[in-house]
């Protein structure tokens, strides 16, 4: 049986995960400072993205996200293992994206399936992601130049 604290921790981490997805889809990368710890390590290399700290990630996303006028990062199958003030998680993400293909060309819609493998920590500001790595599951209809 889960304690009230464990239930609360799970809901807080779920809210954090949904907040992350909303930030990405709104292209509000600077708000990621409210999601990650200051010393977080983020690895987006599964889809040829950046690997590094929060500043590296924010800089990468500010450059990359404008190419996608619309996206949805739909999180499901959230698995969380609590251990006091730390936790580990695995989160499924279904990610349809619309990509601008240049002037006077129609946009291109493709989809990615991935997992986020995370480590979380409780801070004085609530739960935060300390480590995040994307793990590729599948891709559908990606443009030819996307070789990941």
Q: Structural class, from helix and strand content?
A: alpha+beta
Low-confidence stretches are none
Mean pLDDT: 97
The value of Rg in angstroms is 16 Å
**Major beta sheet, specifics?**
7 strands, mixed
- Measured as a percent range, the helix fraction is 10-25%
Number of helices: 2
Principal-axis shape equals elongated
Share of residues in strands: over 45%
What's the β-strand tally?
A: 7
For the structure shown, list the relevant keywords.
148 residues, 45% strand, seven-stranded mixed sheet, single chain, alpha+beta
Task: Walk me through the structure.
- This protein is α+β, with helices and mostly antiparallel strands and 148 residues long.
- The mean pLDDT is 97.
- Strand 1 and strand 2 (51-52) form a beta hairpin.
- Strands 1, 2, 3, 4, 5, 6 and 7 form a seven-stranded mixed β-sheet that branches.
- It contains two helices and seven strands, in the order αββαβββββ.
């Amino acid at each position: 049986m889960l304690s009230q604290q464990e239930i609360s921790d799970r809901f807080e981490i779920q809210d954090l995960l949904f907040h992350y997805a909303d930030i990405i889809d709104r292209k509000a990368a600077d708000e990621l400072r409210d999601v990650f710890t200051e010393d977080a390590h983020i690895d987006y290399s599964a889809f040829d993205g950046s690997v590094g700290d929060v500043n590296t990630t924010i800089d990468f996303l500010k450059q990359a996200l404008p190419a996608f006028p619309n996206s949805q990062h739909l999180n499901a199958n959230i698995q969380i293992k609590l251990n006091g003030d730390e936790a580990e998680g695995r989160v499924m993400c279904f990610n349809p994206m619309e990509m601008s293909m240049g002037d006077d060309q129609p946009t291109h819609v493709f989809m990615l399936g991935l997992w986020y493998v995370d480590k979380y920590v409780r801070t004085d500001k609530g739960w935060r992601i300390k480590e995040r790595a994307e793990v590729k599951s599948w891709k559908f209809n990606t443009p030819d130049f996307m070789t990941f």
